[in-house]
Amino acid sequence: MENLLDIHFLIESFPAIVTRLPITIGIAVGSLIISLFIGLTTALIKIYRVPVLKTISSFYVSFVRGTPLLVQIYLVFYGIPKVIYFFQTEYGWLLNIDVNIIAPEVYALLAFSINLGAYLSETIRSAIESVDRGQFEAAKAIGLSPTQMMLKIIFPQALSVAIPNLGNMFISTIKDTSLVFIIGVIDIMGQAKILGSRGLAFFEVYIAVSIIYWIICIIVERLLVIVEKRARRYERGVVS
Amino acid sequence: MIKVENLHKYFDQQHVLKGINFSVNKGEVVSILGPSGSGKSTLLRCVNFLEQPTNGIVEISGKRVNVESARKVDIQSLRLSTGMVFQQYNLFKNLTVLQNVMIGLTSVKNISSNEAKKVSAEILEKVGLQDRLEHYPVQLSGGQQQRVGIARALALNPEVLLFDEPTSSLDPELVGEVLTVIKEVAKEGNTMLIVTHELNFAREISDRIIFMENGMILEEGTAEQMFTNPSVERTKQFIGKVLKK
């Protein structure tokens, strides 16, 4: 009788899959950083009701939230080279970019940043708006500039509100990066797929890769608890 | 020191300040009294542009600002020459007591952190909070928070201190400690404009009292005159009613 699982194959596939971990983490962390910028910018545009930009950013947020991530990855992967090529041939712009050598990792990073940025936009906006009006007034009354007010008073308070949400989205993003193999990025999922077809042991490699995702997410959750505690330290009622 | 001329404020269609004229001299303590909704808090908040007045003139220590054409620098200069104490304290929740008082010195006046720390600690000692420097606002009682609020306003050494109902959200037993601090501050010769419901306190501390109703100043005069012999019937009625409570 055949075994349910080839345990040896399962165990041996771990180190091979883990070698691609930097790709998965790199795309997740990289897109988190870029999307924080996108999210913050679009949130501030919305809060300060900047004309024109406001319309563009709500169009962006609405489009991203209303279309599947998979479709967005394809749009970026197929769309951007075409757009660059169009500009090169029609206008002679962007000539120093060779669309044939852009790594698929770059498109993946871009697609995830665009996607996460739209979701963060709403989270960041509501976190900033949840800060008590009196904090803004006190900052203005003592003469802080708008930038100082935001950086020193409002953002730190908004951050402690937003962290649980940001954390959940980051964890979702880590798991969503498993989609990137469709555009030829070999992340841990892509590596698992390759190993699986080589040894005809798909069940084993997918068990291995799911355990790896699971462990990453547990580690990230633990880190988030620490970060949240630190960001909220001023909310404790008890004297330390 | 402060001079307000023909100040109007509309919230949409609602006319909440209807041509206010008054002035406060250097070193004077002036209280604004009046029933809820009379526009007294709005008036105070118009002086430092936390509310944008609709039209009129605000002048503080010689700096005249026509509110309709006020530029950012004008607003900033009014804010720098005033210090405000809020009804809800509005301490920066993410900063410690010491940082709350220091931030104006380091960020607005560009004073070195060491110097700012020294100055702030001295002011906090004056309001009796020298042993609470590293606490966060949430760890303090309302009365302590408001004393930090006063220290924060004092730190920038403003020309005028604005108090917006400084004791209205305090538990009754905490009102005393805050009023004591405000009296101390007044004794030091600071120019102060106070919106308050504490009539006895206003009588004791003020050089002059302004009585407002319906967005207008009904009467103004020295504290003694306003409490013992107001010339307007409505003022008499209001003061009588509140003092009886």
Account of the protein in words:
The complex is a heterodimer of chains A (240) and B (245). Chain A is an all-alpha fold and 240 residues long. Chain A has one domain (7-230): MetI-like fold (Orthogonal Bundle). Chain A is 77% helix and 0% strand. Chain A has nine helices and no strands. Chain A has helices spanning 7-18, 21-47, 53-66, 69-91, 104-130, 133-141, 146-176, 188-199, 202-231. In chain A, helix 4 packs across helix 5 (104-130). Chain A is flat, with a radius of gyration of 22 Å. Chain B is an alpha/beta fold. Chain B has a single domain (2-244), classed as P-loop containing nucleotide triphosphate hydrolases (Rossmann fold, 3-Layer(aba) Sandwich). Chain B contains nine helices and ten strands. In chain B, the strands form two sheets. Chain B has a six-stranded mixed β-sheet, sandwiched between helices. In chain B, helix 6 links the parallel strand 7 and strand 8 (191-195). Chain B is globular and about 55 Å long. The mean pLDDT of chain B is 93. The A-B interface holds A 132, 134-135, 137-144, 148, 152-153, 156-157, 160, 233-239 and B 48, 50, 76, 79-80, 82-84, 86, 88-96, 103-104, 107-108, 135-139, 152-153, 156.
How far the N terminus sits from the C terminus of chain A, by CA atoms, comes to: 64 Å
What is the CATH fold-level name of chain A? Answer: MetI-like fold
Largest sheet of chain A: none
Helicity range of the residues of chain B?
40-55%
Secondary-structure arrangement, i.e. CATH architecture of chain A: Orthogonal Bundle
CATH homologous group name of chain A = MetI-like
**Structure classification of chain A:** mainly alpha
CATH architecture of chain B: 3-Layer(aba) Sandwich
Shape of chain B: globular
Roughly how much helix do the residues of chain A carry, as a percent range?
over 70%
Contiguous uncertain segments of 5+ residues of chain B: none
Structural class of chain B: alpha/beta
Strand order of the largest sheet of chain B: 6-7-8-3-9-10
Beta-strand share of residues of chain B: 25-35%
Pfam families (chain A): BPD_transp_1
InterPro entries (chain A): AA_ABC_transptr_permease_3TM (IPR010065), ArtM/GltK/GlnP/TcyL/YhdX-like (IPR043429), MetI-like (IPR000515), MetI-like_sf (IPR035906)
Subcellular location (chain A): Cell membrane
Organism (chain A): Neobacillus niacini
